[in-house]
User: Fold this.
Amino acid sequence: VKVRCAKQETDKKIKDTECEVEQIYNQKLSCPIHDIEFPELEPRLFSFNSPYGACPACNGLGTAALFSEEVCPVCEGKRLRPEALRVYLKSKKDKTLGKSIVDFTSMSIREAKDFVDSIELSEMKKDIAAPILKEIESRLTFMLNVGLDYLTLNRSAATLSGGEAQRIRLASQLGSGLTGALYVLDEPTIGLHQRDNDRLIKTLLTLKELGNTILVVEHDEDTIYSSDYIVDIGPGAGVHGGTVVTSGWLDDLLTAKKNDSGSVTLSYLRQEKEIAVPEKRRTSEKGSIKVRGATLHNLVNQNVDVPLGKLVCITGVSGSGKSTFLYDILHRNIAKRFAKREAK
Assistant:
């Protein structure tokens, strides 16, 4: 290969001359001098479920052995082979080498959306990556629209609350862009905080505006008020039910001068009936269950006193850690204590 060389002359003037330099090129991702070869970049390289991408030391488990809690020292628990962890994406704000796929999946959905929006690519690379980036951006946007901005991308499905799992499924339906479809949902607001309930209702209305029919079985007042048409079945439960008590356009039923149907549901919606608030609260002291340093999933070093002999309500937005606190911390630890006593 002929290249232009700079030659220093004795009179301190620079003179350009032509010289021949041997330069080695390789079609593979390898360096013959250092005897290093990098595998082809393909999807299976970034999957620990594939032998091709899994860490060779732990076979993609992330731990030293099966059922072990000791982190694999080779991949440091990241489950991928070293080469996969040496591929980086760089954002415009990033001053480091960039983020690996493990770094990316450790981000929350909000952080991931901000990162994708600021990825630094040349014009040629942008054209190549455009279809993939469009899909990633749209899926992250749908998740944000249903209020799941706080979830991390690597969160296990088994650790999601019922409300979170349901909204993820709804987000996938928003992304499908289907029209003329019939969606049947059985009490989708179960386990949702009112803030998240509002987001869910907006999602349902968006699906409707796309030209779909939404059929919802629901007790939630806000969801019923957001509907166009209602069918009330009753009048009671079991053998006392099975009859359409009333049906019609919601506005007509609410503005009618009288509730001739005798529907209990409609009576509450029309504010003819209401749930009475107790005039007195329990004040006697019967001790409490003391929880100290509770740490799991979203909970970090929390201290809680749960009074005994009272009606205790655990509230909070969806995904805040209510179920984790109640089942995984409170119930599990109490069950272990009783099990130890019985064993003695």
Observations:
- The mean pLDDT is 85.
- The two ends are 84 Å apart (CA to CA).
- The chain has nine helices and ten strands.
- The beta strands are 2-8, 14-20, 30-31, 36-37, 182-186, 213-217, 229-234, 243-249, 288-296, 299-307.
